[in-house]
Design a protein that fits this description.
By secondary structure, this protein is mostly helical. The protein is built from seven helices and no strands. Helices cover about 60% and strands about 0% of the residues. The protein binds heme C (HEC). The site of heme C has 23 residues, from helix 5 and helix 6.
């Protein structure tokens, strides 16, 4: 009887010690290590790749971005075609004079420019808007398009 009691006491002591050790480990082991261990699928390593965005950033801090998002983004994604083509890389495929003339009056440009004529046909004769931006706004918008092109590649 005494023997049985002492065995039970020993088992309880060991079990209790294990619980204490586990609690201690959970508190002391660095959070990052635990997070890695707890990743689903038994994956124990976090690679920075898992956190890369699916496409490069959009330069939302530039002044020109506000103008872009207000006036252009309904039809032009930075990375995707909506009603018109994506404009994230437009500064890489056209020169600045062409883009400026297009933004001010694409219809006028079309009367004398082959690329503008082809675009118009490619987009089933849907037309880009004409804009009457101030010099400052135009310059901000162009800065956005040029800087955005650098990060869009
Ligand atoms: C109502 C929709 C609409 C809005 C708003 C709009 N666009 Fe467009 N845009 C188009 C369409 C459609 C085309 C291509 C067909 C065309 O216009 O001939 C185009 C083409 C362009 C192109 C030529 C792209 C290339 O690949 O060469 C540029 C540059 C452009 N737009 C700039 C702008 C800017 C900058 C704004 C905002 C200030 C703007 N667009 C607002 C519809 C729009």
């Amino acid at each position: 009887m005494i023997n049985e009691l002492s065995i039970i006491t020993k088992i309880l002591t060991i079990a209790f010690s294990l619980v204490v050790i586990l609690i201690f480990a959970a508190l002391v082991v660095p959070e990052k290590y635990l997070a890695e261990r707890l990743l689903p699928g038994g994956c124990a390593t976090i690679t920075t790749d898992s956190y890369l965005p699916t496409h490069p950033p959009i330069l939302k801090d530039l002044e020109g971005y506000k103008l872009y998002s207000r006036n252009c983004s309904p039809c032009h994604g930075v990375y995707n075609k909506i009603i018109g083509p994506a404009l994230g890389q437009v500064a890489g495929r056209r020169d600045s004079l062409w883009i400026t003339q297009w933004i001010q009056d694409n219809e006028l440009l079309r009367s004398k420019d082959q690329i503008a004529q082809e675009l118009y046909l490619e987009y089933n004769e849907t037309q880009c808007l004409k804009n009457d931006f101030s010099k400052t706004d135009m310059s901000d918008l162009m800065t956005f398009l040029y800087e955005q092109n650098k990060v869009s590649k």
